[in-house]
Structures are given as C-alpha cells and as structure tokens.
Predict the 3D structure of the following.
Amino acid sequence: AQKVTQAQTEISVVEKEDVTLDCVYETRDTTYYLFWYKQPPSGELVFLIRRNSFDEQNEISGRYSWNFQKSTSSFNFTITASQVVDSAVYFCALRPGSARQLTFGSGTQLTVLP
Amino acid sequence: ETGVTQTPRHLVMGMTNKKSLKCEQHLGHNAMYWYKQSAKKPLELMFVYSLEERVENNSVPSRFSPECPNSSHLFLHLHTLQPEDSALYLCASSQESLAGAQETQYFGPGTRLLVL
C-alpha cells in the first residue's frame, strides 16, 4: 500500500521568508514517482515537479527547490523568498511504477502574508 | 485553448436532478481521470479511461456514470446525488505508453458541485 504524509496542515509566513513543506512517503515498490502540485484558490491543480525513484539529485527551479532523500523517504519542497502569490495548498503525491493511481497527501495550506 | 478545461465551473443541483460534468483535454493525451476532492479528505481517484476504455473504477456509487466518447473528452453523468457528494470534481489527463508507462497527470480547474 502507498501512503503520503504531509504533517504540516497549515503554514503561515511573512513575504520574503523561506519556507519548507515536508513530505514523507511509504511504498514497497522499488520504482516509483513523486510529484508536487500547487492548488491556488481557483481550484486547479498545477503540476510543479516529478521525480523518479532512481534520481536523487536535488532540483532547483527559480525560487523553488526540492530535496529528495530515499534514506528518509522524504521529498521536501522549499520556496525561497516567498511571495503572496505562493499562497495555495500544496500537495505531494506518489505513484508506483506503471500504476495509474496517484496517492496524494492531505496537503499543506501555505499562507504568505504581505 | 490549452491544457485541460472543465465545464461548468460551479454547479448546484437538487437530489433528484440529472446533470453532466464535461472535461476536455487539448494535450494530445490518451488517458483521462476523474478525481473527487472533498473538504478535509485527500483527493480520491474515481475513474480512469485509457484509450477510451474504462480501466479503473474505484468503488464509485452507480449514481456517478462516466463516459469517454473519444480521447479528448470525458463526461461524468450525475443522477440522484446525495448532499455528501458535494465536492470539487477534478479531471486530469496523461499520456500512457503501450507498455503501460505513465506520464505526468495534468489537471483541469475542477467543477465545484453543491447538492441540496
């Protein structure tokens, strides 16, 4: 069975602060994919990143960075110099091998205050 | 238009009504999905269509009836719903290879449904 845990239900920061969203996953599959999605108030889930289980390199995209550590089954997401537009619910998700089903965490509501 | 679109964006219906949700993807994908997002619950996969065939049905009540007439369109027909069916219904699409390898799922904006 797959499981994704996002222990932080809500986080509030002031603009320009850095913030890290935690994601811990459980799976018995050796091949799997991890995702982060952003859900602004409009409702659409916006794809941010996908990593496969064989690629532990950290990734940086602008103000966003991701830290994938298989040893701790974590895939954390950091926003540097946060902005008000970053306010949204962020979901971490897991998909094993060739399965179709995404297992989502419960999401972290991030509020960035001006 | 680009990406995945859904109509209507908001829907209010009574328990005896029949309505349909529509999803259209403009990404050339061959797999489409319906998800349900209720308050305080993780997203739940409802149905998956691959190459216009339903390949997954996650124990969804029969009052929800999906239809996939072609690889670009997906419908969710609703009838005699219950108030607990009120939720955000999200459509997604992805590309699936013949070997079954899955690519990233891209989501539409959702239909926010309220059942009275």
